[in-house]
Amino acid sequence: MTTGLSQGDFSIERMCWLAGVSRASYYRHWLDSAPRRAENELRDLIQKMALGNPHYGYRRIAALLRRQGWQVNHKCILRIMREDNLLCLRAKPFVPRTTNSKHGWRVFPNLARGMILTGVDQLWVADITFLHMAEEFAFLAVVLDAFSRKVVGWALDTHLRASLAIEALEMALADRHPEPGSIVHHSDRGVQYACGAYSELLNLHGMQPSMSRVGNPYDNAKAESFMKTLKQEEVQGLAYRDVDDARRRRRIRTFIDTVYNTQRLHSALDYLTPEEYEQKHSKQRILEMTE
After folding, report:
1. Domain extents for the chain?
2. Which pTM was predicted?
3. Among 121, 137, 138, 204, which Cα is nearest to 166's?
4. Distance (Å, whole) CA 265 – CA 259
């Protein structure tokens, strides 16, 4: 009986006969060496992925491998990354005060708590964080769609005036063109979001303001998560001299618009990117409408 396995024009049986070894010996050797070769190939690919994505943990690396057709268990990836010292390190964050909630403007109730999101442009979350650069502190205001975690607006400057938050919101409005009355806008109680100019902009576009409870950062956890990712994966990994340097090199813009929104896998989105997650939901809605 001959075997279907072959090498070029020669069957396994023919090659074993020419080499003077039995087929049983050949298969014992193959079963012993093939798994090692497969793991070495997997290990090499993991190393390339980890070096290309230095802030990815083993779960995201496993998701990348599955995208390439590998049937892998995340525990196996963890073992290999631990053995090869490829597990990413997390820096302890320094969190300065960027919120001034002691003001005379109106504070709105928390409408976001308990919302069940079914699509995009239902809940936007806004926040401001600091960026420590070589020669100065800068501040970044962002607006995220809470459903997909996509950054839809942002602004960078050296001040904490309301115009910083307004610039980020105006970018989001220009990008998404939401229907009036469709969005709850959630933020902390900072003066930038409570002031008259910001409230007027929300009212102009029919957006319902919502604010976090006192001293509870978890109410705005999705925005906080983005800020942490930005600092760990972009700003702390590169030396920016000042805001002008950051703008000129366009790396922060590239990280937000390209890496974070269209390339970075999110565990909360079933290891899809925000852009992919929105596209997937859009296709599902179209299918539901045509049924």
Report:
1. 6-83, 123-290
2. 0.66
3. 204
4. 9
- Which CATH code for domain 123-290? 3.30.420.10
Task: Identify the pLDDT of residue 101.
Answer: 55
Q: What is the pLDDT of residue 6?
A: 44
In 3D, which of 114, 129, 43 has the Cα closest to residue 79?
A: 43
Q: Are 223 and 116 in contact (CB under 8 A)?
A: no
What DSSP element (H or E) covers 282?
helix 274-290
Give me Rg for the CA atoms of the chain: 26
CB 175 within 8 A of CB 153: yes
- 256 neighbors 95 (Cβ within 8 angstroms): no
Q: Residue 74 and residue 275: Cα distance in Å, rounded? A: 24
Is residue 41 within 8 Å of 51, Cβ to Cβ? no
**Residue 236 carries which DSSP code?**
G
